Amino acid sequence: MNRYMLNSIKAEAIKQHKSVYHSNLMYFSMLIWPVLELFSAYYAYKPFEGTAASEIVAKWVGDDMIFAFILFGYISFIFFRCFVQSAWRFSSERISGTLELIYQTPANRLGIMLGNALASLFESTWMFMVFCIGALVLFTNLRISSIFMPLVAVLSLVIPSICWGIFMNSLFMFSRDSGMLYTVFQSPMEIFGGAKLPYPAFPFWAKVIGGVFPLTWSINIVRKIFMNGALLSDIKFELLVLCAICAALFLMTLLLLKKSEAYARKTGNMALF
Amino acid sequence: MFIDNILSTARRNLTIQTRAYPVHFFVGELMSCFFTVLSSFFIYSIVFKGKVSDSFIRFSGTSDYMSYAILGSFMYLFVVRTFLNVSRSFITEMREGTLDSLLISPVSYMGYLSGNMLEQTLVTTGELLAAIIITSPFGLKMPDINAAAALLCIGITLVSLFGMAIILCGIMIYLKDTYLSQNTVFSVMYLICGITFPVQYLPNWVQNISNLIPVTYSLRIFRSSILAGSSIASQAGDFLMLAVLSIIYFAAGVLLINRIMKKAPERQFI
Amino acid sequence: MLIAKGLKKNYTSKVKTGFLKSTTKKVEAVRGLDLTIEPGSIVGLLGLNGAGKTTTIKMLSTLLEPDEGSCAIDGLDLVKDAFQIKHMVNMIAGGERMVYWRLTARENLEYFGRLYSIPKEELKSRIESLIRFVGLQERSEEAVEKYSKGMKQRLQIARGLINDPKYLFMDEPTLGLDAPIARDLRRFTKSLAKEQGKGILLTSHYISEIEELCDYVYIIDRGLKIMEGTPKEIASIVANCTNKYKIKLNVLPDKLRGQFETFMSTVQSEFQLEEVDGGIEIDVSSHKDIQSELISMLSQQSKIISFTAMEPKLEDAIITLSEVKNYEQVHA
Predict the structure, then answer these.
(1) Looking at beta carbons, which residues of chain B come within 8 Å of C116?
(2) Residue C116 contacts B, CB cutoff 8 Å
(3) Which of B131, B199, C30, C57 could join C52 via S-S bond, C-beta 3.0 to 4.6 A?
(4) Domain residue ranges in chain B
């Protein structure tokens, strides 16, 4: 990592943080809306309470754990969404014309993407802490094996979400209609990733779609750590898959950056897709 | 004069929309409609093997959960699109720099807003047809529809949505914000108006709030008329509440907007 | 006739001082302004940025309600009869906004025309003549976003005339326009007043524009009127309060230098000396016209290589005038 890279990361993270995260937006998008959405997801289960199938569901979810189950899935989803949103906002810089200015500087491209993603780290971690503490206070039947494991949970959210964030960033950056891409990725990730639903219950085809998203594996890890008291050995498969996905995302980002800049130099057009 | 304002504004908006239709808004709303239904489908068919509880049947009067959920998502589409266009209309003019040319003319605010509402209703109806098509694989069944009750419900609902949209419009101008206010309203309504589950599951104090929002009644009448074939007479109570609330919201909206708009040009400076 | 008396407008804005804390800040944009516009005349409103020109225009065009003061337009009250007044006035602002970019020129005019409830046939012929008038007939069916800056500006002018206003307020109408187009616009503004009898209020940065067009001029600074008069009077005052000369001499002997410095201090003028290739350059700025005195004094003992009297700038004049005004206020 060279000097340009470090400076690019730092400058971009500070700019993004200053221009976007004023306090109101923080409270609404990271606290009030998630709480409302969380309850909506919880009540969506109500029409099925007490049916014969709910015993099978308890096997996946845990007895009387539906709320905790949704909570951990959903905040993991918001953790990821946060990075996607910041990527999306960044892509709007192409419209306002500041992107070209950034590209005229010798700034490291990957550094910019990384800095942009890092700026969201602060708000998403803050949100995650608040909800986790809330969950620990609210639910007495949570099982955590050691103090060390929640740290593993946070890391298995932070690293994949950054990789996902920079990948989305480069994808949005070079597409003509980032608004569309944003919608195309958001909701399927929420459903197939199992933010509100038990992933193990999915049919094979849905499992395949969900398996592509790093979120799916992060959610599994977080739930196992907070709800089942998992140890490292219990989640080694998930961790392995997560590492593979992250590496793949990182490589694809590098490829995309390289290709798009060559394309932009040749055609004077940033849009690759 | 008033009618002229409505028609010319509606025509102007239609021209703009057909020339540069906000495709990602449309796709976004259709997708969220589709995924709301898909999510319900996952819970219902895959997780709970197509069985609903007795309490659901008692509260909703139907055991057809998928049709219940699909109708809810249609109503939500109408709510979101109306608020996105009508509530944001003045603030969009403000951002695009055309508010002054508008306010300097003897335009009637209500005429202008009605024009926006008329145009948006036409557009949303078109979008609803698309929504009906993409959600058709999930099986909307209307075995016993009471068309008169459903149509009357839609009519009054439009008035109430318009009233709420005007109030939200005033709030947006006052706060000079669209993003935070619109999304807060959307997530509150999604939770408490019974879009994906009967409001009876909510705690009592929340239900009391639900009962102050016309959409709660609209949804109940809409579903009951379409899924159970209930007549206007048998739902007279709900119809009455919906009508009363619509009038209240509408009147409050008119009062609010006239006050807020007087100060609107000034707020552009701050 | 438009008669405004003691117009005042304050803006209050919230200033965040910390978490959940804020204080209100009051900005006095206009502090008691009197002005009169007669039909068929062009009145100029001059001032630097932030002087209150736009606020004044927005008050007169019913967009803002004055906090204090009154204004009568042909006997109608600006606040009470705002709705009727809207039919009689219109505003044209510089810049490219205020029209819908996604609509064509014709569609824009049709929309605004209908907001004024102009009968269909009349509107149709009026739009035709306005489009011809501003020279957009060839591209009237194209969306405005494809227009050049000047064309958008011309469409704005057509929009401002759609209700055939008796009084027209023009806020920096030539801002950012090319010289030939600005010249056309000035000619056209003149014909609106002289041939169609409209009363026009014009704000501008350019003294030459004001001199060419206006029958009467008000100069305002920080919301207060600091001067009024015919453009001739204004121009002479402006010329008087800022005289700048650039003089180049081949030598400046010590004796002459002493004489020059004494003279400068007696006429309360400022100067700067600089030695350049082949002589000495002197920049003089004075509140008085001292051109002939300077020439006669300097030419006796040195050779004047060049002598330039700089054109007086409005900005300098306004700054000087407001300094004088402040001085008078403090010492009154």
Answers:
(1) 105-106
(2) yes
(3) C30
(4) 2-267
